[in-house]
Amino acid sequence: MDNEEASKILDYIPYTSKTQEEIDYFAFLWKSFCDNYDGENYQFAFLSYHMLFMCAVYTLLAKIRLFDKCSFGKGMILCNPERQKEIIESNSIFVFSSLKEREIFQLFSLIGCSPEEIREYKKLIDDRNDIAHANGNIFFNSKEAISEKINEMTDCLEKLTICLEPLVLVKIKEFLISSIDSETREFEEENEQIEQILVRENYLSRRDIYNGVSRFEIDMLKENIQFDKINLLFARLKERYSED
Questions:
Q1: How far apart are CA 57 and CA 110, in angstroms?
Q2: In the predicted model, is pLDDT for residue 221 greater than 90?
């Protein structure tokens, strides 16, 4: 495994970050991983990569919170009312860091993850915990050792992204219908409307948008009297975000 293959994880963080804080933090973690990986400090490289993995997990949770706030609120029932309000109303992905990491994976039952899958994902937290203490053990001392764990993390994110896909497709449909009129939408220019309102506001990742564009069935909107305009906007979306 090399840095290019490991960089797949960047496909699961927000495609267009909402704040400079996010941009700086993601860049810091990725640089920390690369520096330690290239320096063969694989144990520390794993820690940086795992933190980036959790950022991607928080991003997924932020999308569930945004796309289905009612169900998400029910998932937060075990939190005290003050914490519930803070998490539900926050615009930051980092608010989820206040929850216990193993427990937050339970929230993915809201998008159809099975108990078996959730137990599997929780093991990734256990792996990190095993090496985050001065216990005298060096678990990752080769590329082969860290590569297996990196693959497990990216596989987890891909599975969760697929589970979330139906909600992303609904969001794309809503966006196309509400954004066809350049005089009433938020931004007149099409590309800016797509980037700011569809991608940025919905925390969409590279995988979200590429998967959504490739799998969205535009013909479902044929009965709309403004289908021609909708189709043109979708064509612009495909032009900008179709995966090579």
A1: 14
A2: yes
